[in-house]
Amino acid sequence: MTSQKIKIMEINKILNKENIINLTDSHTLLNYYLQAFHNHGILKQGKHISNPFLSQKQKTPSFNIYKSSSGLWRYKDFADDNCDGDVFDLIMKLKSVSFMEALQHINLDFNLGLGASVHKKQPEIQFQSAWNQENASYWKSYGILPDHLEHFRVFPILKVTHFKENKDPFHIHATLHNPIFGYQITKDCYKVYRPLSQRYKFSWIGSKPEHYTFGISQLPETGKRLFITGGEKDVLSLFAKGYNAICFNSETSLPHADLILELKERFNKVIVLYDMDKTGKEQSQKLAEKFQLYRATLPQLSANDGKDISDFFKGGNILSNETIHIIPPSQKKKKMGSKYLVQLQEVQELLKETITSEIKEIPSLITYNKEGVVFLQSVHVIQGKSGTHKSRLAQTLCSVLLKKEDCNNELLGFERSPDIPSHVCYIDTERNLAYQFPKALQEIQLDAGYSIMEKPNNFSYTSLVNIPRAERFIALCEFIDNVQTELEKGEHLIIVLDVVSDCVMDFNSTQDSLLLIDMINTHINQKLVTFIAVIHENPSVAERKPRGHLGTEIQNKATFTFRTAFENEKQPEPSDMILLHFPKNRNGKRPLPATMEFCETTKRLILADTGISLKPSAIQNKKGNLGEIMEFLSSYVTGIVSGKQLIMDLCQTFSCGDRTIRERLKELSGSYFEILDANEVPCQLIKTQNGREVFYRLQPIENPISKLK
């Protein structure tokens, strides 16, 4: 019994993540390691500070801590999707240390008294006998041959066996679709590489050297150029092409100064060549500036083509003056430590390359009268005063994007591009969750051709109504990030913010407004995302400006603007007619305006009929003429039919308002019109009433004019 207690106590003193979490508080830990970067005392959720990983302070702070769904506190920069992690990630990035070293920092700083496990058995490796066509197939696509792998002491692994705390083994077997390789670092140390694993690509077996540099022992004594790359595979790819290269444990690792000094003496040029993602660019600049090294950048590869030199070679490219841009070490006359100079130079190089080829027009997601109105990776605004059906217009655009191929509903004349797969994300901030917002979602689905029981995979939605206003921006970012993880490959995300001014703490605050605008800009420039922002106009009759500083900013950033307004904005009582204007189109000609009305029967916005409009000068579409309705009635009316059902079906068929249909039926039943029934007998439309119920029937005409000679 005594020995069992001793064993439990020893295991509980193991230095690992779980024990640190159990012995400390994640909020306290984050505050402790962030206290040097702000002067706000205890950092709380909703209070933004400058990103501690950046060399210069942010003009608009966007770094914050928040409590995650697991109950643990994390950090996030809401202007940078890649900046999100826990306290262990924070220490690893701030101090450029490994995960185990981060654990040790917390252990010592908080005097936890934890130590390494003495009971856990070390993992075991079973190697394959030799390289062959099958186990070398992964490397072949990068031009790396078995001879290259053997030269760098890289071996194919058959199985890795790990041991649990109770010493029970569990095995990881290599397969053709999930191969395992081992980089031999020392006699008893291997870095295990699983390139196709979704979670754990790297692990260490044995004691990792304090200053790990892969490829250092394979270098010649002297040479013209040496590349410092982001990983072992990059070293092998460069070596296979005849170039000297090394790498450290990761792109965030900083080497010892003596090593860099030695390499600069042995090679004419030492060039940092890291990945083309955000982390790679930042760390490349940091390393090059610290040690006065050359720095190389590759052309931006597409998302499917990868981000590093290995992927560059895999795509059939070669290193040349045309494909690689080498930036010399910073000179004293240049401004040292400029955070954005290199980034702006890279943008310039990208633009130089772009303007030498044909620039295609931005594809349209939605068109109106064959003119684009919703575009890829752009910002759109729907503005108007209260009661002008801004939200219903937003719903209509969503229905257009979700519309089934066999759906014949006419949605204000808008049409979507069938070639661009779309995912709609509708985020509401105003309507109640008991009836209003659920009803709106039902209408979107019905207008798109779905039943209310269906759940389209490309339709996401939520409401910020119950989120405190101070935390809505954080909640918004979290939900959008989550939706993006569920997108199908190549799907374009369209985010509707209804209304956008409720997504921030204060829409008159410059800081709050720019924080949201920066988030939107980041998404549309770096991802396949489009925004449609619904916003109220100032209530003053004379003004047509969206509300607040946020309204001004988002209107300036918008590619296209929709505006809804009453037909006579100056009259005290709103009219049933709604004018749809298109005040702004950066991509071309503005479409002509249209007149809409809200149909009480179908609960849908429809194009108004010319004859009903209060202003004949307005541009409108004529719908449901008498000839079309008479043709419909000839096959529809068999016996006595309900007036209510008839009006609803006519509204649905001809995309007209119920008032328009009632006018047509009144005209047909009150005057002489011959309507052929199903047997081609000339009839007249007869209206009867039983209490409040109205009915219609076709009654044969005794001496129809059409039969008289």
From TrEMBL:
Cellular-component GO terms for this entry: cytoplasm
GO MF terms, alphabetically ordered: DNA binding; zinc ion binding
Gene Ontology biological process terms, A to Z: DNA replication, synthesis of primer
Pfam families tied to this protein: Toprim_2
CDD domains from the UniProt entry: TOPRIM_primases (cd01029)
SUPFAM superfamilies recorded: DNA primase core (SSF56731), Zinc beta-ribbon (SSF57783)
Name of the protein described by the UniProt record: Toprim domain-containing protein
Organism: Aquimarina aggregata
